[in-house]
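Protocol step 4 of 6.
Sequence for Transposase zinc-binding domain-containing protein (Halopseudomonas salegens) entered exactly as in the expression construct, tag removed. Do not edit the line below.
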Amino acid sequence: MGTSYYACADQHPGIEVHHSCRNRACYLCAQQKRMEWVEKQKQRLLDVPHFHVIFTLPHEYLSLWRYNESLFAQIIFRASQTTLLTLLADDRHGGLKPGVLMALHTWGRQLNLHPHTHCLVTAGGLDRQGNWRALNTFLLPGRVIREVYRGKLQGLVKEAFESGDLCLPPDMTRDTFWAVYRSLYKKSWSVRIEERYEHGKGVLLYLARYCKGGPVNPRQLKRIDAGGIEMSYLDHRDKRVKSQRLRPEEFIRRVLLHVPPQGLHTLRYYGFYAPAAKQDYRRCRNACGTLAMVRPAEDCSSTVYYCSTCGGVSRLTSRCWPSRGKGNSINRASVLRHRAGGSVQRADEQYLEKSSYDSS
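Step 5 output, structure tokens:
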């Protein structure tokens, strides 16, 4: 996509900034989009405590996930949604309609395949009379939510299999599928209700970290050579930072496991946060307000680059980008064009404002 070059007034070694590929799974390109999305959510999320709930897909279904990624994503979303909304609508557990923001993640700390949904659930909702009512520090019983989630997801998997929508891997027979299916009723499923966020800032920090950008933060990459890639990760079991070394092919394979299929929405809204529940949402917003006045988790302004040698501000000196001729097909042969200095730099800036390429 081309590169922009920055240098300080003393012309020390410059800074190269590659132009955005705009892919939602690219961590660097998603930085600005991430913060813009958070600012939009501040207009939507209520200024109330939120619970954090995590629904995990059993690892026995991982082979099926690889052959039915879009289908299983729909299944885990629907099972998570119906579990929360059904239980909270029950008078024994509040009798409320909450607001739910849900994000699908497919990775573990070591880039292994680990599909799960992160849910932000309002600590309160609308009762049957349409009035706002807050919940206390308790959301739902752990045993109940695990059993209901298991039943919902198993029912959806069975329905997809019997309708022919579920594609079995080459090494899995129908008998093997039913054996795996029945065995999952004998184990306890992983559903965690984490700590409650008591204020809007905590919600924003959570969203800023997880909403966009894929599984790999460039700061995790410690050493890269032809023999392998060393990356750090936080072990959630003992809370210690550890490292692992992967062959380049294995690293690429693991990253590509977590690129979502085209057209799959990995962020969704339910309850009174759903786009179709505008009237209910207005009632809740009038009662509680939104996070619009909460300051962002980090600066969303334009990036300033500083020289690593003298610390001075680095200015744009030149840019180069692919020239693709007519049209915008990425399959056309690319020839790098380069412009530098003075009026040419200004021409670059005007060109880039009109083009689809922007600097990270």
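Step 6, annotate. The longest strand covers residues 313-323.
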